[in-house]
Automatic annotation (TrEMBL):
Residues 286-404 form the CdaR GGDEF-like domain. Belongs to the CdaR family. This is Transcriptional regulator. It comes from the Bacteria.
C-alpha cells in the first residue's frame, strides 16, 4: 500500500508549496518517487513502509531517521521545534531519506489529506499552449504564471483537485480553507456563483463573497457535459489581458484529465461499495472480500455507520462521508473497509483499532461533515465480533446504535451499542405504546388532569423528584422550594396515585420519560 508511485518528491514540494512544507535534507535530490502518506508514532515498529511519506508525530530522533532509511521510507516529515533540525538533517542524509518540515499550524490529518489528494490526481493532461502540463498541479501553476493570479481546479462537488503554488501570489482565507479542507467552504452565495459559471460558455467574474478577492471562473466541459471548474484569484494587481483566453485553453486541457478521474473514481468506488455491501450482508466470497480491503478473515472486527441526525442521507452525502471515513482511518493506520451502502456510510474496522482513538477519529469526521453537507450527524458503533463473517451482526448493532443516537433518549454524537441499551429500550417501549392510550393514561394521566383542572404543578414536581432519584431535598432545591413544601405536594399527589407502590413508581418514571416531561427543560 505504501509502494513507490509515479509522483516525485519534487512534485510533492512544488504542489504543497513553501507555505506547507520546506526541505531540511534531500540526499536523493528531487527525483525519488514517493508512495502513500502514513501518520506514524515513533514508538511503533517500522514495517510495510517502503516508499512511504512518514508523518512523524511526537519528537522524532536521529535513531528514527536511521530506522526509516533501513525500512525504505522515501520521506520523513517533522514539525519544527520537536527536535533539533540540524541533527535530524544529518541523520536523514546518512540514512538516504528525505526530511521535510511542515508548518506548525498544519495538522497531521490535513497534511495526510493533501498528500493523498496529490497522489490521486497526478496524471498526464493535454498541452496548454506550447507547454505540456505533467499533471493538474503543473497546469494550475502554468495558468497562474500566465494570468498573474493564484489558481484552483475543482470538481463539481467543489472539491479542490489542484491548486497553484507560485511564489509571491497572494491567496485569501477562502482559498486557504479550501486547500486545507479539500473542498470550498460552505457559503450562502456558493450555489448562485457556481451556477453562473457552469451556465456560461466563457469565463465569468465572481465578486461573492464580498469579503474575499474577486475570482474569474470557467467551466471545464467534455462533449458539453460539465466536469468541474477553474478559478483564478485577482489580488492587488489586475490579471493579464488575455486571462479569459488562457482559462479557456486550460479548461480544454483539463477536461480529459477530469473525465478520467471521474470515470476511474466512480468505477473504483462502485466496485468497492459492492464489495463492502457483500461483507455487511455476509454475501459472496467473504474471506476474499475481506482480504481485498486489507482485513484478515479470522480477525475480530467492528462496524461503524454514520448518518444525519434528523433526515435521510442522499447518495452523494453517503459517498462523501464514506470517503471521509476512509481517509481518516487510513491516516492513523487503522485497517478498515469504508464506503457507502444503501444510502448510508459504513466502515468495517479491524478490532485492534477499537480503542478510544477510534471514537475520537470518528468524532473528528463528524465535526467536518456539517461544513460540507450541512446538518448534524451521528455515528453508531456495533459490538466487536470474532471474524469478518460475523460483520452483519455488528452492522445491525451499529445501525441500532445510530437509531438511538438520532432519537430523543441519547445526546452523544458517537456511541457504542453496549452504551445505548437503555435508549434503545426506551425507543422500543415508546414505539410499542405510542398508538395506545396507556402512555397518557394512569398513573400520569390522573396527575396531569389534576394540574389542568386546578392549576397545580404536580407533573413538574414529579419530574424533578424522579430525576433526583427520589431525593426530596435535592429536588426541592431544583424547584426552589422548601423541602417541606415538596413533601406536602407529594402527599397530595399520593392521594391521587399510590406513590409508595414500586410498580406505580416504575410506570410513572417511564411515562414521564416517554412523554418528554422528564427532560431537563420539561
Amino acid at each position: 500500500m505504501t509502494a513507490r508511485g509515479r509522483v516525485t518528491l519534487g512534485v510533492l514540494l512544488d504542489s504543497l508549496g513553501p507555505e506547507m512544507v520546506r526541505p531540511l535534507a534531500l540526499p536523493g535530490g528531487r527525483e525519488p518517487l514517493i508512495g502513500t502518506p502514513v501518520i506514524y508514532d515513533p514508538e511503533e515498529a517500522m514495517t510495510g513502509l517502503e516508499g512511504a511519506v512518514l508523518l512523524a508525530t511526537g519528537r522524532p530522533s536521529a535513531e528514527v531517521l536511521a530506522r526509516a532509511g533501513e525500512a525504505g521510507v522515501a520521506v520523513v516529515v517533522v514539525k519544527p521545534g520537536t527536535s533539533d533540525p540540524e541533527t535530524l538533517a544529518e541523520a536523514a542524509d546518512a540514512a538516504g531519506t528525505a526530511l521535510l518540515a511542515a508548518t506548525p499550524d498544519l495538522s497531521w490529518g490535513q497534511l495526510y489529506t493533501l498528500i493523498d489528494t496529490l497522489l490521486a490526481v497526478v496524471a498526464p493532461v493535454e498541452e496548454l499552449g506550447d507547454v505540456r502540463a505533467a499533471d493538474l498541479f503543473a497546469l494550475a501553476n502554468q495558468v497562474a504564471v500566465r494570468v498573474g493570479g493564484a489558481v484552483a481546479i475543482e470538481d463539481l462537488a467543489m472539491r479542490v483537485l489542484a491548486y497553484s503554488t507560485v511564489e509571491g501570489q497572494r491567496i485569501d482565507d477562502l482559498r486557504r480553507e479550501g486547500i486545507l479542507g479539500r473542498r470550498v467552504p460552505e457559503h450562502p452565495t456558493n450555489a448562485e456563483e457556481y451556477a453562473a459559471v457552469l451556465r456560461a460558455e466563457d469565463a465569468v467574474w465572481s465578486y461573492e463573497p464580498r469579503e474575499y478577492c474577486p475570482r474569474l471562473g470557467i467551466a471545464i466541459r467534455a462533449r458539453g457535459e460539465a466536469l468541474g471548474t477553474i478559478w483564478v484569484l485577482k489580488a492587488e494587481k489586475p490579471l493579464a489581458a488575455d486571462a479569459e483566453e488562457v482559462l479557456a485553453e486550460a479548461a480544454r486541457a483539463a477536461a480529459p484529465h477530469l473525465a478520467r478521474i471521474n470515470l476511474a473514481a466512480d468505477e473504483a468506488r462502485r466496485r468497492r461499495d459492492e464489495c463492502l455491501g457483500g461483507l455487511l450482508r455476509g454475501v459472496g466470497p467473504v474471506r476474499e472480500l475481506a482480504t481485498s480491503f486489507g482485513l484478515l478473515p479470522e480477525e475480530p472486527v467492528v462496524v461503524v455507520t454514520v448518518g444525519p441526525h434528523s433526515r435521510t442521507a442522499d447518495a452523494f452525502a453517503a459517498t462523501h462521508t464514506g470517503d471521509l471515513l476512509r481517509t481518516a482511518y487510513a491516516a492513523y493506520r487503522m485497517r478498515a473497509a469504508s464506503g457507502a451502502v444503501d444510502g448510508r456510510a459504513y466502515a468495517i474496522v479491524a478490532a485492534d483499532s477499537v480503542t478510544p482513538l477510534l471514537r475520537r477519529i470518528t468524532a473528528g469526521v463528524l465535526a467536518r461533515i456539517p461544513d460540507r453537507l450541512g446538518g448534524q450527524w451521528r455515528a453508531g458503533i456495533g459490538r466487536v465480533v470474532p471474524s469478518v463473517e460475523l460483520a452483519p451482526a455488528s452492522a445491525r448493532q451499529a445501525e441500532e446504535a445510530l437509531r438511538a443516537l438520532c432519537g430523543p433518549y441519547a445526546q452523544a454524537e458517537v456511541g457504542h451499542h453496549e452504551e445505548l441499551s437503555a435508549a434503545l429500550f426506551l425507543m422500543d417501549v415508546d414505539a410499542a405504546v405510542r398508538a395506545r392510550p396507556s402512555l397518557y393514561g394512569e398513573p400520569l394521566g390522573v396527575v396531569a388532569a389534576h394540574d389542568a383542572r386546578h392549576g397545580t404543578h404536580y407533573v413538574r414536581s414529579l419530574c424533578v423528584w424522579v430525576a433526583a432519584h427520589y431525593d426530596v431535598p435535592r429536588a426541592a432545591d431544583t424547584l426552589s422550594l422548601h423541602p417541606n413544601t415538596l413533601r406536602y405536594r407529594l402527599r397530595k399527589i399520593g392521594e391521587l396515585i399510590d406513590l409508595d407502590d414500586p410498580d406505580t413508581r416504575l410506570v410513572l418514571a417511564l411515562q414521564l420519560r416517554l412523554s418528554g416531561a422528564a427532560k431537563p427543560d420539561g
